[in-house]
## 1
Amino acid sequence: MRKMNCMGILMIIPFLLLSISGNSQNKIVVHTDQPGSTIDKAIYGQFAEHLGHCIYGGIYVGEKSDIPNKDGF
């Protein structure tokens, strides 16, 4: 029983230390006057392909698809 009490106390100590150090304030600075990173246009296509039918099917509608074709989508 005594061993379990010691283990319980040892398990609580890290949480107490985290709560004490958690009182610091965080700060986010956004520099709108500076240019940001350029994102490759191929990245957007990879994620858009999964829309509609999860992974298989995507949003592109070909000529032989059961989904109605409206301007290729």
## 2
Amino acid sequence: MSPSTPRQRYANLDALRAIAALAVMVEHMFGDLLRQVPSATGPMSTLAQALVQNLSLGRFGVALFFLISGFVVPFSIGGERPLRHFAVSRLFRLYPALWLALAVLATTAWLAGDAPRTATVLANLTMAPPLFSQPWLSPIHWTLFIELLFYVLVALLFFAGTLKHVGVLLALSLALITATVLPIQLRTHGVVNLPIQYLGMHLSFLFLGLLLRLWLVERMRGARLSAVILVLVQLAALLSVSQFSLARGDNFVMEGLRPVLSAYVLAFAVFLAAIRLERPRSPLLARIGLTSYSMYLFHGMVNAAVYRVLPLTGQLGDIATMLVCTGLTLLLSWLVYRVVERPMIKLGRRISSKRDVALVPSSRLVDTFHRQVEWNGALVAATAGGQDSAPHPPPDCRAVRHGGDRSLERPLDPPLSEIVAEAAREASVSDKIVGGILGTAIAAVTLSWFALLGYVGWKIAESL
């Protein structure tokens, strides 16, 4: 993929998202099978056991998602106010569908007589329940916090002017891996009993996607070497933490070293091949990929509902059950994408573009105005002097031809008037409504944070 490749959302990456989402779904369905009928000996149980022992499809899908996000997300920062634009786009991209999923989860649990605690719901609304020592309403959602931390780090790197600094990215990635490996090694050798977390290891895969972008697309010096170094260190880290993690039963390598290691290696190989070859080019997979976020959020709920009617048995009949789960998930995800995700994404873009227009510096308006005046004067002089052709308009002025006579060209709807008109429309009723929606969304997130903090403080005070 060359640097000149146009930004077309990389349709092959949308197809990769579909592959990643489907892999996660298959892993969870086979996992459900092994949990629900652990003693079954049918062909589907045998297949599930063989798969779990050799390849973690869920880990493969997660690693692929991380690489794609690292490859794409940091380069979406732009506009007159890039960080504000980035924050608005991420807010409208992720939170609306998540809040819908959480509403369904909380309502379902309440109807089943197992309503979640208020603190848990509030923490989940922030997309950061680990910060408040609260569980996810759905354990499937654990990767969202990783993505959120990555966005924060990307924004900080952009603000510091080091988002494309290969050395800084490599050093940060190695530090994140060390934050996972060092406490484990110190515990293993009885040096000190430090808390264990795998956030750093997960985040390093997102930064690997960023380094691969700098190497394969941006062609930045040192990016290839940095990416190779990071991959080798990640493999060594997986080997060094596996024994400890397996002994504790941690989710990081709960299936075993071989399936997890093969999942990460396969994800890296598939991603690298997809970028270098610009494959897969499947319109169907690309369309499914557009709904991958909703698939990720809702497939667990769909599966649970289907199992009530078509329970898993370990026999060949489970194929029909899994196909029903997949089909209903795709249908629901498409509906959520059309009704919630896509409108909210467009709304976020509209708000960002309106703000960019409103924030156009007055010097730009004056400069555009002067260029228009100069061109108009040149047109008058050329016409009066009988010249055969008029001067070319500046790049930000448009012209219209009358009767094939180029000397009679005149400016039409110049950008100056468009800019002024756009700014004037900022106060329209519709935009006030849009602004109100944005304010409500931001307020909901903010209030959930403060409400949770207040709840925790109240509990602490109550215990004293």
